[in-house]
Amino acid sequence: MHLVDTHQHLWDLTQFPYSWCSDIPALNRSFQLQEYQAAAAGLNITKTIFVECDVDERHALAEAHHVSVLAESQPLIAGLVASGRPEHEDFETHLENLVGLSKIRGLRRVLHTQPDELSQSTRFVRNVQRLARVGLTFDLCVLARQLPVGLKLVQSCPDATFVLDHCGFLT
Fold it and tell me: What global pTM score does this model have?
C-alpha cells in the first residue's frame, strides 16, 4: 500500500524565521526533507503535500517559492499549501503571485492564534471565495472551540473547497 502524507511541514531556520516556535525548544530547529525522509523510512509514503509552517508573514511568498523549487526536484512533494492572509487588502496580489507555482494546491491562514472575528470579516470571506475561481483550497486551522466559526466561513463560501487541519486543535 502506498500512502500520501497530506500534511507535511518542513522548515529551515537558516532561511526563514518562524517566530512562533522560538519558545518551543523541540521545534525551534530546522526540519528539512532529508530528516522527514529518515523519520518516514519504511512507511511507504510515496507523496506528500507541504503545508505552510506559519512563517513570519513577510516571508510567506519566499517560503512558497522555496518549497515550489524544492518540489520541482523532489517528486515526493506532490503539492504545496502556501500561507495567505485573506484579511489583507493586497490579498489578490498575493494570490496572483502564487497561482503560477506548478504544485500550488491551496492556501492556509492559521486561525487558532487569532481572534474568532478575523475570518468573519467581509474582506476575509470575499478573498476566500476567490480561491474557488483559481482552483485552490483553503485550509482551516482552528481550535475545536472555533469549529462553529469555521463552519460559518464554509457556509459563506459555498463554492470553495476546505480542508480541516488537525481536526480542530483541542487546546
Answer: 0.93
| 3-167: CATH, from 3.40.120.10, 3.20.20.140, 3.40.50.1220, 1.10.10.10 | 3.20.20.140
The grid coordinates of residue 35 equal: 530528516
Q: Which residues pair with 139 in a beta bridge?
A: 108, 163
What are the Cα distances from residue 171, in Å, to 15, 18, 145, 150?
30, 20, 9, 16
Q: What is the dihedral of CA 132, 87, 23, 150, to 10 degrees?
A: -60
15-30 residue pLDDT tens: 999 999 999 999 999 9
Greater pLDDT, 129 or 1: 129
Separation of alpha carbons 64 and 106, rounded Å = 11
H helices, E strands: number in the chain:
5, 6
